[in-house]
Amino acid sequence: MADILDQAWELSPSVALRPEPFGALAYHFGNRRLTFLKRRELVEVVQGLGGAPDARTALERAGVPAAQWGAYARALRGLADADMIRQRDTTGEAP
Amino acid sequence: MTDTTAEANGAVGSASGSLIETFERGLDAPICLTWELTYACNLSCVHCLSSSGRRDPRELTTEKCEAVIDELQAMQVFYVNIGGGEPTVRPDFWHLLEYAVDHHVGVKFSTNGVRIDPARARYLASTDYVDVQVSLDGATAEVNDRVRGPGSFDTAMRALDNLAAAGFRDAKLSVVVTRHNVPQLDEFKRIADEHGATLRLTRLRPSGRGADVWDDLHPTPAQQRELYDWLVRAGENVLTGDSFFHLAGFGGKLPGLNMCGAGRVVCLIDPVGDVYACPFAIHDAFRAGNVLTDGGFARVWRTSELFARLRAPQDGGACASCRFYDACRGGCMAAKFFTGLPLDGPDPECVQGHGEPALADPRRTVPAPGRDHSHRTAPRKRRSPGPVPVRIGRRPEPAAPPASPCQESPLAGFTATEMTSPETAER
C-alpha cells in the first residue's frame, strides 16, 4: 500500500466538522457515522489536508513532530476507511 | 441516541476514558437531539415513553418549528431524531423535513409506518440526509401487536416493504427489547437483512406508559445476559442507540457511548417546546426550560440549572464502591427515577444484581406520572348518563337533612325515625 502521507487528501464533501474543546466531532451525512477527533492537532491536520499537496505537508504545517507521523498516518487511514477523508484527484492542480 | 462509530485508535474513535469525562461535563451543543413533533398518534403502544395519543393544542406552530431548526443549524447539531407521537401525522411534517435538510440539519425520524406509502417511500429514497426508523416490537404479529396494537405489525412491514421497493438504503428497524421478544432477536435481524435495513435495539424504559407495564415486560436477568452476549456477537452490525450501557457491568463494553448523556450530550424537545434532559425523562423533575418562554433552545441548553447539575461531577453514590462502576457509570437515570430508586444508586436492572434489593425496599415510592396525552380508551364518565329515571311517589327525604344557622324548623338537626319515608325505612 502506498504511504498515505505521500498522497493528496481532503475532507469528504459529506462530512461536517464541529470544533469541541477536546478536538472535534465529525459527522458523515452519507453513512451517518459520528467520529470523535480526540486531538486538536489532528483536527488542524484534517482541515489542512485539502490545501496541502500531500498529507505530510499538512502534518508539517500543523506543527506535528516527525516522531508522531506514524501514529497520525494510522489515524488518517482510519478516517479514510470511514470515508471521513477522501483521496483527492490532483490532476490539473498547480504543482 | 448517538449511534457512534468506534475505531481502535488513539486519536480517532470511540469515546472512552478522558473523552467520557469531557462529555460528562457537557458540550456547547448536543451531539444529537430528539424532537417529539406531536403527541398525536394513531397507535396506543402500551410502553409509550411520551404517553402519546392526543395532540396537545399548544404544540409548536410550523413557524416556531422552523425557528428551532434555524437554531440547531447555528449550533451545528448535525442531525435530529424526530419522533412523537407519530410525527408523520402532523400535516406540516414533510415540509419540516425538507426545511431541516435544506438547513443542513440531518433528520432521522421514527415512525410506525402508517404514512410510508409507495410514493412517500420513493420521495424518501430520493432525499439525502434523511434516515427512517420503523418501529416494530415483535418479529411476529402476535408478539408485536400485543404491545403496539392490532394491525401494527402489518403496517410496519408494509412500510419496510415500500422503502425496500423504492430503493431506500439502510433504513432502521427499531425494536424495544422486551421479555417477549428476546427470543426473536435472530428473527428481527433476518427481517432487517431482508429489507436492506439495519437492526436497532433499544432498552425498555419505565417512562410514560412504560411505567405501567415495565414490571411485566422488562427482560429477566437471564435474558439480559442473553441479550448482552447477542450484542457482543453482533458488534457494530446492530445499532443500540447506546442504550444498553448498563449491560457493560457484565464486564465488557459495548460499541458506542457507554455513559448517560442526559443533559450532557443529548436532550429532548417535546411538542410544546419543553426541553427535557433526555427522551426517557418527560417529567417536571427533568424539565430544563421551554424554547418559547426561556429565550430559545441554545439558551436553555447552555444556562439551565438542571443541566448544570447533571454536568457537575457525580460521585457514584452507592455504586462508587462497585468494581464495575467505571463500565456502567451507575446505569440509566430515567430507569432509576421512574422506578422510584435513588439517582445515585444502582440501576433497577443492574446486571450485578444490586437493583433487586433496591426495588424491594419498602420505602420506595414510584413518582406520579408526568404529562399524559393518552387516547381516552373508555368514554368519559358523564354527570347525567342518559335519561333521568323518574319514580312516582313521595320524594325520599335525606337521612340527615342539612342544618344551617337560618334553619327555621324546630326539628332542624333531628332525624325522627317515625317521620322517615317508606323508602328510607326499607334500608
Proportion of residues in extended strands of chain A? 15-25%
Estimate percent helicity of chain B. Answer: 25-40%
* Secondary-structure element order of chain A, N to C: EEEEHHHE
Q: Termini separation of chain A (Å)? A: 23 Å
Mean pLDDT of chain B: 87
Relative strand content of chain B = 5-15%
Structural class of chain A: alpha+beta
> How are helices and strands ordered from N to C of chain B?
EHEHEHEHEHHEHEHHEEEHHHHHH
Q: What's the β-strand tally of chain B?
A: 10
The coarse silhouette of chain A is globular
Strand order of the main beta sheet of chain B, please?
7-6-5-4-3-2-8-9-10
> Mind describing the biggest β-sheet of chain A?
3 strands, antiparallel
Task: Describe this structure as you would to a colleague.
- The complex is a heterodimer of chains A (95) and B (427).
- Chain A is of the alpha+beta class and 95 residues long.
- Chain A contains 3 helices and 5 strands; from the N terminus they run ββββαααβ.
- Chain A has helices at 40-49, 55-61, 69-81, and strands at residues 9-11, 15-20, 23-28, 33-37, 85-87.
- In chain A, the strands form 2 sheets. Chain A has a 3-stranded antiparallel beta sheet, covered by helices on one side. In chain A, strands 1-5 form a two-stranded antiparallel sheet.
- In chain A, a hairpin with a 4-residue loop joins strand 3 and strand 4 (33-37).
- In chain A, helix 1 packs across helix 2.
- The radius of gyration of chain A is 13 Å and the shape is globular.
- In chain B, a hairpin with a 4-residue loop joins strand 8 (266-269) and strand 9 (274-276).
- Mean pLDDT of chain B is 87; it is low at 1-10 and 410-427.
- Chain B has helices at residues 18-24, 62-74, 93-102, 118-125, 141-148, 152-165, 185-194, 210-217, 221-234, 297-303, 305-311, 325-328, 333-338, 355-360, 422-425; strands at residues 12-13, 32-38, 79-84, 106-111, 130-135, 172-177, 198-203, 266-269, 274-276, 287-290.
- By secondary structure, chain B is of the alpha/beta class.
- The termini of chain B are far apart.
- In chain B, 30% of the residues lie in helices and 12% in strands.
- Chain B has a 9-stranded mixed beta sheet with strand order 7-6-5-4-3-2-8-9-10.
- The A-B interface holds A 16, 18, 20-22, 25, 27, 29-30, 32-39, 42, 71-72, 74-75, 78-79, 81-82 and B 2-5, 7, 9-15, 18-19, 22, 27-29, 31-32, 76, 78-79, 104, 106, 108, 128-129, 131.
